[in-house]
Design a protein that fits this description.
Layout (H helix, E strand, L loop, with lengths): L1 E12 L7 E13 L3 E14 L2 E14 L6 E12 L4 E11 L6 E15 L5 E20 L2 E20 L7 E16 L4 E18 L9 H12 L2 E15 L4 E15 L9 E17 L2 E16 L9 E15 L3 E3 L2 E11 L10 E15 L4 E18 L4 E21 L2 E16 L3 E18 L4 E12 L6 E12 L2
Antiparallel strand pairs: 1-2, 1-25, 2-3, 3-4, 4-5, 5-6, 6-7, 7-8, 8-9, 9-10, 10-11, 11-12, 12-13, 13-14, 14-15, 15-16, 16-17, 16-18, 17-19, 18-19, 19-20, 20-21, 21-22, 22-23, 23-24, 24-25
């Protein structure tokens, strides 16, 4: 098996000059495939230009897999990277071993991944970020009866991140972070003729620690002591317990009713005495959803959701931040697919109320947020070679002071966002050319101060997709003219992306 791979990308955004990137990579490889195993090696060249820094170097990759037929055992290994001229490099190594598949009664899986990336920093500095991830999963499924089964799963993850300066001289105090996470879950499934019922309990634990690699015999200066104290403020541990239930009822072959509820408790702790973010959170919610489908690809869905969260800070200095959050949302969406067109409208009405436990404060007050949002996409085919796409979106939200006892609101501000885009495309075989126009409007107003910000933008957009013998060329972008409303000038914001990738 002989294989060639050519990939590349170009990205530029005038709003974020530091994001400019030009990258190209060409690899040639040879591999060998057996009925239950395969191996592939590749070698080539990579060119990377980022933030006016240009690097070139040799690039390579290797991949192997093994899955014997007699045993439910599988193993995979992959590694790729580039060694640029000088010191800069990047590599990605991953391995996985599993016993059992996704549908097996017992699954044992272990994974490991090591990613190292060098990138430009401030001035002439270059930073290196190295991340190691090791994880393991155990899952056991036990059928108790033809319609009743249970499952228990245990997962653990360890992430070690090292980041520091490597040029022009090594960082004497690199930053290191360690994250540990574990999850224990148990589920019970019942599938009678009426529908599907599920009861689930989940327990999650996570902790994250930061530290600088400071030698023990080093006399700490005030700057190092301050850095150590700042890192200690970022350390935390969380414990999350959740009990949830869900029922999917088949009302008819086309109609389905889904009901779900959730109760959860979160404990957030910080080891630093200077950190006052320690808190307890009590979560609760319920959801009702109705779905109806009348043919393949065409359906409607209506959802009514309620959420409640009560947050209590454990430090007396933060007690004024104790609050309850209530969220009520009504969503509706439809998907219609015809012979020559498709239509996907969605809208949402949302109300959110933040109620303080101690409302009689001069700074922190109860708040109310009301939001209306709409999103729509319409695609159609005019002729066998011509088609069009229309995208619409809108969002209006109002924020005001809320009075819980009177259930009254005093409006404070309003934000309005609207956008529309139309693209007319021509398709010839696998080649696609598209040209269109897009427009947007943003408006923010305050009840007391009036209109504070108003922006409108309009400009052409293009999309090109051309398949080649080496891959597909994808190009897209727009040239936006934006008026801020504060002056008579129009500002230009171009955006363009070019990719060359293997299908």
């Amino acid at each position: 098996m002989i294989r060639g791979r050519l990939s590349g990308d170009f990205f530029q955004d005038a709003r974020i000059p530091s994001s400019e990137r030009i990258r190209g990579r060409l690899l040639f490889g040879i591999g060998y495939r057996l009925p239950h195993a395969a191996v592939l090696t590749e070698i080539g060249w990579e060119s990377l230009r980022q933030v006016s820094v240009h690097n070139q170097g040799w690039s390579g990759a290797v991949a192997a897999s093994w899955a014997p037929e007699r045993f439910p055992l599988s193993a995979r290994f992959s590694a790729e990277g580039t060694r640029f001229r000088g010191w800069r490099q990047w590599y990605d190594v991953a391995a996985q071993v599993a016993w059992g598949g996704s549908s097996a009664d017992t699954l044992l899986r272990g994974t490991y991944r090591l990613v190292s990336q060098d990138f430009p920093g401030i001035g002439a500095e270059f930073q290196r970020r190295r991340e190691q991830t090791a994880s393991g999963t155990v899952r056991i499924t036990e059928p108790f009866a033809p319609t009743l089964s249970g499952q228990i799963a245990l997962a653990a993850t360890h992430i070690n991140v090292w980041q520091g300066r490597v040029q022009p001289y090594p960082d004497s105090l690199p930053l290191r972070s360690i994250r540990l996470a574990g999850e224990l879950g148990s589920s019970l499934y019942w599938t009678p003729p009426l529908g599907t019922f599920q009861l689930e309990f989940t327990l999650r634990y996570a902790e994250e620690a930061y530290r600088a690699d400071i030698p023990g015999n080093l006399i700490l200066s005030p700057e190092l002591q301050q850095r150590r104290a700042q890192l200690a403020l970022q350390e935390y541990s969380t414990l999350w317990s959740q009990l949830s239930a869900r029922a999917d009822l088949g009302l008819s072959p086309r109609d389905t009713l889904a009901l779900s509820t959730l109760l959860g408790i979160l404990r957030y702790d910080t080891p630093s005495p200077q950190n006052s973010d320690d808190r307890d959170e009590q979560h609760g919610g319920a959801l009702i959803q109705y779905r109806r489908s009348w043919r393949p690809g065409s359906s409607i869905r209506a959802t009514l959701e309620f959420q409640r969260r009560h947050t209590v800070f454990l430090h007396a200095l933060r007690s004024a931040w104790n609050h309850r959050l209530y969220v009520l949302a009504l969503r509706w969406e439809a998907h219609w697919r015809g012979t020559h067109s498709s239509w996907n409208p969605q809208w949402e009405i949302l109300a959110s109320y933040t109620v303080r436990d101690y409302p009689y404060t001069s700074v922190l007050q109860d708040l109310a947020l009301r939001q209306w949002a709409y999103r729509d996409s319409l695609t159609f085919r005019l002729t066998p070679g011509w088609g069009g796409e229309l995208l619409l979106s809108g969002r209006v939200n109002r924020v005001g002071l809320f009075y819980w006892r009177q259930f009254a609101e005093q409006p404070q501000s309003t934000t309005q966002e609207f956008s529309a885009a139309f693209l007319l495309s021509r398709q010839h075989g696998e080649r696609v050319w598209g040209i269109g126009v897009r427009a947007s409007s943003f408006r923010y107003s305050d009840v007391r101060l009036g209109v504070l910000s108003h922006q409108i933008g309009i400009g052409p957009q293009v999309r090109i997709e051309v398949p080649t013998a080496y891959g597909s060329i994808l190009a897209s972008g727009w040239y936006e003219l934006r008026h801020t409303g504060q002056s008579s000038r129009w500002h230009v914001f171009p955006w363009f992306s070019l990719q060359l990738r293997k299908p």
